[in-house]
Structure formats: structure tokens, C-alpha cells
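Take a record.
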Amino acid sequence: MPSAKEVERMDDALYSAILYCARTPVKEAQQMRSDFLVRWRRRSLELGKREGDSCHVELLAELVADLGVVGADDLLENLRTACPMVGCVGYESLYPSAGPGVPELTTEQLLRRQSDVLARSAKAIRSDNPANKGAVWDSIQRELEAGYMVEVQVPPPNAVFLRRFVIRQVKADQEGCPVKLRPCDDGRMALVNKAVFTTTKVRLDTADMFAEVARLLAASSPDGSSFYSVGLDHKEAYRQLRARNDEVCRCVVAEDPNGAMRFFRMERLSFGEAAAVTHYNAFAKVLASVVRLGLKVPLCQYFDDFAAPCRSEDDKVLADVLELLQDILRTTFNPEKTTQGRAFRHLGLVFAVTAEAVSISLSGARKNGLVSRLKDVLARDSLAPGEAAALAGKLGFASTALYGKVGRVPLQPIFRRANSSSTFVGFKLGEPLEVALSWWVKVLEGDPSTFQRSVPVRAVQRGCAIRYVLLTDACLYGLGAVCIVLEDDRPVAVEYFSYAVPQGSGLPIHALEFAAVSVAFRLWFTGRKDYTVSVWVDNQTVLGNLVQGKSRTKQLLAPVHALWEFLAQARARVWFQWVPGDRNIADLPSRLEHRWSEVGFCGLRPRERVLEQGVVEREIANLLREERRFVRCASARLASA
């Protein structure tokens, strides 16, 4: 049975659907779904769908009431009357300024400054290249034909202007990394995207959640069961919801082929408007809840991506889910992205579910595409915020079970660039970002087993769990570390190393403290995989560097990333923590106190590990080399200035 903590991570409807699928005979489950679909298809025909609605709204309202879906009242109101622009006007002015004197604009003041916003938008549009202008105009023609927008000759008094542009989305998981052009409506000049805020919590079923749902399904199913997964993708997700333009009118500005500015009122939500995220996610979440409660299918939802693990004996799950969502509720899905199979691609990862384990991996095509893109960025030494945001999304697998914290650390510099409001020329990488991108290239080109992780379906029995506790310390004349091996939280072995630092090394104490940690990992964990270790250090500066995976001290920047690369390749689970200096048992070996080997620890006699020739010397040489490189770079920058 799953633990209380596991159940708490998912809502009741999802958990109940997992147990139903696992424990109900397949024929009985299929008959239940068939009866449910027949009933609601009949009701769909009786009610009829109102022209222009995003879906069969009144039928959805009855389903929500009948199934007891919680928190759908606001969504249903928005579906009936269209979705408003949520938020407030912020403190930024239309023109670049800073400091406490920046005025707070009311909505009325904002709308009175339409001419300023329009002038700035027109200037930005005219400076765009012809290819982008053509792509924008083509997207507008398609949306006019589909009824997603309507041209207006004169903008209304309540218009908020959105400048349309195209973003290039690289499909890194497809052969040849094709590029998809996606139209995006930018309201920053009109203070829309910057100012929007919402109290709605956007809760998403991440790749971790899908893996957990699959694991619970496998653990609760009869012995010998086999499994597959199904996936669906909403077509033009934001465009499925109508936009309300009574209080504030979303008005897209674009240049036609003759060079004239044209205005288009958005009838559906805009890709790029911040409020569209919360509006659509509420809609998708309710659809997933209806499937979980009505069809008893454990459907996971991540924005417009839907996925569910299933027992192999039940081959009608995908058809039944599509019948409810597409045929009965009248929402639209991409047929080319409707998939099912044992090796299932979802959110950039490949999942495979068996009775023994849930395996998670990164496909070879996606890995090669990412390496190619990263090398291109490094070669041109430039990364704009928009491109950084797209790259961070493609590397999002690092935040899931595949890497966890070890992957989130080198994502930080990329996210900082993505969220940067700077407009410095060329968007040069800078050293922290360059080191992070190089880290990714090394890891992606490394051992293929790094990109595979297996989660056991049933918990490992107590008494077999082994983890390590590592304590390190340093002084100006010595390094030392203690490694305690715990089996079922009971110490079973204690080892240490002690090393005399050569006089005149020239390294500050924080560099030596880091060297002790790095050497300890390479001494005890080289060649190991999938281990768990708690690391205790008594230097706050080094602790901060280790936790964040970066350093303001240029001398440690690359070495810290190298250590995280070592941890990523080993798929290690690491926790760094501070220990007071007077309680750090690594103090004795770092002070070259050889009586340490005679001191008992929990009834165990510590055993000395002899370092291989040159291990510490290489670590110190690397630190000195980084220091010299930083001095050379700083001198070159001063000379050029």
C-alpha cells in the first residue's frame, strides 16, 4: 500500500482512479466507462451546444455538478461569458525610468496613453526583419479565417495594444531539430504582461507525478500485470477559450504587406498574455478531473499535455477518453500527437512501466539536439532572454526525477538570463553562464547511463539501505575528511584521509576547504552510482558555493561546476549541511593529528584511506590555474576598457 505521504501528493480523484484501474477487472471497468459515455452522449444531444462556445459548456456544468468536481464555478462563469484580462496595472511607466519617482498608473491613465503605446509598438514592428513580418501576417490570416480574431478599423477606447511577433521553437527531440514558428502577443509596452498578477495557484502534474502515478498503479495491480501509457495534446490550447473584451479590449497591432498598421481584436486568449496561463490551466484541470471521476482513468495534466498509465489488458482507454473529451464535450485534440505504447514519450522524457520498476530516460535524438544547440550558443557567445527561456524549458528534465537538485543547480544561470530585463548589446554569455552551458555539454556527451533512472515499484526492504556521511575540514597546512558508512542508519564502517598541504601553496582557506570536499568525493565515490550522501562542512562560504552550485569567487566557479558534473554522472543524491567547527570530527585529520586513528567512533576503529599519488596536487593545481585565468581575464578587460 502507498504511504500517507504519497497519497497526500495527489488529489483524491487521481488516487481513487489509480486504485480502481488496478483492482477492478478489465471487463467490468470497460462496461462502466461504456455506460457512462452512453448516458452523457444522450444528454449532450438533448442540451445542444451553443454556437461560439469553447466547448459544450452546459454539459460540462452538469458533469461537474454530478461528479462533484471542486472549484469549477469561476471557470464555468468564464466559459459562459468569456475570460477577462486578470490583474492590475503596475508601477512601471511607459518610458524607461527607475527609482521611487516612477508613477503608479490607474487603468484610466493607461488607456489615455494609447497613442504613446501605439507609437512605441509601431516603431518596434517596423524595425523587425521582413521574414518575421511575413510570418506574423500569415499567422493573422489563419486566425482570421478560424474566427480567433476580428479586424477593427478604429481601435476602441478601451484597447490595450499587443505587439505580435514570432518565436522559433526548436524541436530538440526530433530528427534534424526542426523549427516551429509560434505567434506570440507581447503586451509589455502596454504594461499588460509585466503588471498582471493572480492568486490562482497553477498546479501541474509534472514528470515526477506521472512516474509516481505509474508506480502506484503497478504496485497496486495483480502480480504479473503489464502496462502501457496513453497521451493526448490539446490543439491550440489557449485558442480554445473565448476572450472577454468589454472592460479591456485585447487589440493586436501588425503591419500588412503594404506597410500599413492594422488592428485586430482577439476573440480567443492570446499566447503570451500572462492571464491566459491561469485561465487555460483551470479549464484543463477540470477536464482531467472529469476523466478521473467519470471514467476512473488516472489522467495526469501538464497544461495542454494529458497522459495516463494503463494496464495492458485494457486497450480501450484512449478511445474512451477521446470520446468523452472530443466527441461529447467538443474540445479539440491533435491527432498526430495522440499516442500510446509501452515506451511512452511525455514532457521530453521516455517512460516505461513494468511490474518491477518505472524507468525514466532521455531519448538519443533529444540529447543530440540539445548538445547541438548548446554548442551553437557557446560558439557565438550570445544568449538572448527569450532563447534562454526556451533552452531552460528544453532542459526541464533536469528538475525531475532524472536529476533532481543536481540538475537544477546548473539551470540557475540560464533562468537568470531568461528573466533578465537588461538590453545590453549582444547578450554576451559572461563567465557564470558560459561555465553552466559547458557543464551541460559535458554531461550530455558523457556516459549514456546518466540519462536513465529506474524507480522500484515496491519499496526496498528496511535493513538494505546504505548511505554515507561525509565530514571535511581544512587548515592552511592540511586537508582531512571522515567518511561514515551507515546501514539502516547504523554506523558499520569509518574511514578517513589526512594530507599535508605544501608550504607556500598560496591558496586561501576557502579554496582549501573546497579542495577537501572535492578530494573526498573522488576518493570514496569514484566509480559508484546512485548513492546517497550527507556532506557536513564548517565553512559557510564553501557551504553556500556547494548548495548553489556556483561561486562569486572566480577561483571556485569552474571547480564547483566540475564537482556537480561528477555528482550528475553518478546520479548521486546529495545533501550539504553546516557543522560547528568544534563539533567537526574531520578537524583532527585536517590538523594531521595521527592519534585520530586510535580514537574509537561508535565502537568502530577508523581506517585510513591512502590517497593516490597526485590526487590532491592536481586539485590544488586546478584551483591555482583558475585563479591565474581569472587574473588574466580581468587584466584583459581593464586593458580593453
Notes: Residues 615-640 form the longest helix (26 residues). Residues 233 and 305 are 5 Å apart (CA to CA). Confidence is low (pLDDT under 50) at residues 1-9, 87-102, 460-464, 633-639.
